[in-house]
C-alpha cells in the first residue's frame, strides 16, 4: 500500500519514495547537462562513420549515456537521422562488425527502446528490426540476448508486434531459446510471448517450430513458468493444438500438474489440456488412464484456482459423459 507523506513524496512499506519529477530536466545534474547539448550527440553520431577506434569509442559512450540518462534517450526523437546514423556501422553489406562494437550498438538500441516515444521511431526505421534480427544470430551471447530484449521492449506497441513478426524475428528467437544459453533464453522467451499477442504471429511461431522447442524445454524443467504461458497463448491457434497432440503434450502437461507446486502453472496446463480435449477426442483415452491411475484432474478440480477447477471439471464431465454413452450403447 502507498500513502502520501507530508513532504509531497509517498510512503511504500514505511519507506519514503522520491517525489515524482514533472520536468525530467530537473533530475539532470549540471555535470550531465553538457551531454544534452545538440552538439554533443551529433559529435558522437558523426564518429560512427569514422575509424573503427572512433566508432568503438562513440558506441561505448552512447551505450553508457542511454543506460543512465532517460533525458539522453529522449534526444534521439529530436534528431530525425539519429537511428540510421547509430546503426550505420551495422549496415548490411558492410565489413564484419567488431563484436564489441556490435554489442554496444545493439545494447544502445535496447536502451533507447525503453523510452516510449522511441519505440515507433526504432521499429519504423527500415534497417533497425532487420539488424536486430541479424544480431539474434551472430555476435556475443550478450549481443544476442540484448537483441531479443530490444525486440521484447519494442513489441509493447501493437503495430510493432506486426512489423517484428512480418520481418522474420520469430525463427531466430525460437532458435535462441532452443540453444539453451541461460543468459539468452529468458529474453528470447519473453520476446516470443509478447510478439505472439498478435494472432497472426501465433501461426508464424507454430510454423517455425515453437511448440516442439517449448515442450522439450518444459520436459527438461527449463523456464517452465514462461514457456507454459507461451504455450497457453498459442493454444488459441488450431495448428498449435494439432501439433501439441502429435508431440505428446498431454503427458507432458499432466506431469507438470502432478509435480508442480505452482498453481498458475497448473492452471495453464489444464487450460491447454481443455483445449486439446475439445479438439481431439483421440486424447481422451490417455487422460482417462491418467485419471484412473492418479486422479490428477479430480484433485485439481477440488483444490486448484477457480479457472483451473472450471477447466478440470469441464474435462472430467466430457470424459464421464463419453464413458456413460459407451456403457449405454
UniProtKB/TrEMBL annotation:
User: What are the residue boundaries of the U-box domain, all occurrences included?
Assistant: 41-216
Q: Looking at the record's lineage, which domain of life comes first?
A: Eukaryota
Signal peptide residues on this chain, from the entry's feature table: none
- UniProtKB keywords: Repeat, Ubl conjugation pathway
Task: Give the matching SUPFAM superfamilies.
Answer: ARM repeat
Gene3D superfamilies in the cross-refs: Leucine-rich Repeat Variant (1.25.10.10)
Family annotation (Pfam families): ARM_PUB
PANTHER family per UniProt = U BOX DOMAIN-CONTAINING, U-BOX DOMAIN-CONTAINING PROTEIN 46-RELATED
Q: How is this protein named in the record?
A: U-box domain-containing protein
Lineage, broadest ranks:
Eukaryota, Viridiplantae, Streptophyta, Embryophyta, Tracheophyta
Amino acid at each position: 500500500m502507498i500513502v502520501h507523506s507530508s513532504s509531497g513524496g509517498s510512503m511504500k512499506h514505511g519507506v519514503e519514495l522520491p517525489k515524482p519529477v514533472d520536468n525530467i530536466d530537473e533530475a539532470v545534474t549540471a555535470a550531465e547537462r553538457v551531454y544534452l547539448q545538440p552538439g554533443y550527440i551529433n559529435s558522437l553520431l558523426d564518429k560512427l562513420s569514422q575509424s573503427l577506434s572512433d566508432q568503438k569509442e562513440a558506441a561505448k559512450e552512447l551505450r553508457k549515456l542511454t543506460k543512465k540518462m532517460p533525458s539522453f534517450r529522449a534526444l534521439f526523437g529530436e534528431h530525425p537521422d539519429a537511428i540510421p546514423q547509430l546503426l550505420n556501422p551495422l549496415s548490411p553489406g558492410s565489413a564484419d562488425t567488431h563484436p564489441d562494437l556490435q554489442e554496444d550498438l545493439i545494447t544502445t538500441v535496447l536502451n533507447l527502446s525503453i523510452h516510449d516515444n522511441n519505440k515507433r521511431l526504432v521499429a519504423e526505421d527500415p534497417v533497425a528490426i532487420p539488424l536486430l534480427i541479424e544480431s539474434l544470430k551472430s555476435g556475443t551471447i550478450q549481443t544476442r540476448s540484448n537483441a531479443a530484449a530490444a525486440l521484447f521492449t519494442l513489441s509493447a506497441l501493437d503495430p510493432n508486434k506486426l512489423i517484428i513478426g512480418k520481418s522474420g524475428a520469430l525463427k531466430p528467437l525460437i532458435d535462441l531459446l532452443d540453444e539453451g544459453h541461460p543468459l539468452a533464453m529468458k529474453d528470447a522467451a519473453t520476446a516470443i510471448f509478447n510478439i505472439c499477442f498478435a494472432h497472426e504471429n501465433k501461426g508464424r511461431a507454430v510454423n517455425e517450430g515453437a511448440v516442439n522447442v517449448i515442450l522439450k524445454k518444459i520436459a527438461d524443467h527449463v523456464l517452465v513458468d514462461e514457456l507454459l504461458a507461451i504455450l497457453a497463448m498459442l493454444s488459441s491457434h488450431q495448428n498449435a493444438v494439432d501439433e501439441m497432440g502429435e508431440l505428446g503434450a498431454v503427458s507432458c502437461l499432466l506431469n507438470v500438474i502432478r509435480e508442480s507446486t505452482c498453481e498458475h502453472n497448473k492452471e495453464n496446463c489444464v487450460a491447454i489440456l481443455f483445449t486439446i480435449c475439445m479438439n481431439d477426442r483421440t486424447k481422451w483415452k490417455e487422460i482417462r488412464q491418467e485419471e484412473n491411475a492418479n486422479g490428477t484432474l479430480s484433485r485439481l478440480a477440488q483444490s486448484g484456482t477457480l479457472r483451473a477447477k472450471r477447466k478440470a471439471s469441464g474435462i472430467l464431465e466430457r470424459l464421464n459423459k463419453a464413458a456413460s454413452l459407451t456403457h449405454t450403447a
